[in-house]
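Subject: Protein record for review, amino acid sequence with backbone structure tokens
Why sent: The fold of this protein is of interest and is recorded here as tokens.
Enclosed: The protein record, placed directly beneath this head.
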Amino acid sequence: METLLSIGLGLGLSAACGFRVFVPLLVTSIAAQSGHLRLSPGFEWIGTVPALIAFSTATVLEILGYAIPWLDNLLDTIATPAAAIAAMIVCASVLTDFPPLLKWGFALVAGGGTAGVVQGATVLFRLKSAAATGGIGNPLVSVLELFGSFTTAILAIVFPGLCLLLLATMCIVVFRASGRLAFGRRKDPKRASASQPGSPKNNL
């Protein structure tokens, strides 16, 4: 049971990295310092005061950067690989009873992959928001992502199983919605050409 909880915790924190890179590291550092989270050997530095200060500063800068329209889309290109790296670190840090090879293998494949899936969903959502609102609605998207990152990280520590269930549901809904929109766009040019005055169907 403890192993399963560690897996759920690691994947939940990894998913939170898909929303924001440094928020899960900050939450993990606070939880470790307050005694609510036990870190894997070699990762005790995450629960130190210098690490807490560094993660807090990085989190504030990340929040400010995503509050600026169009800059947020540029940050997404950097955040995608950074989220995978952060997810690997935070996932490995909570797998306390795993052998080193299994720990890093799981963190690389499952942790990095989970962050990549969530990050991909947020990038799609942000691009559609930018196209629909001209970038004006992106600050609201950033607030939702920030809330999602904090909530996911806290849920991962308190209720790892529930956190994974909610994330799986969210990813399915987002990717299905994106697929439907993409399918609709592929069909639109044909409808537009058929409705033009000079189209063969209208000349019959």
Summary: The chain has one domain: 2-190. The two ends are 70 Å apart (CA to CA). The chain has a mean pLDDT of 80.
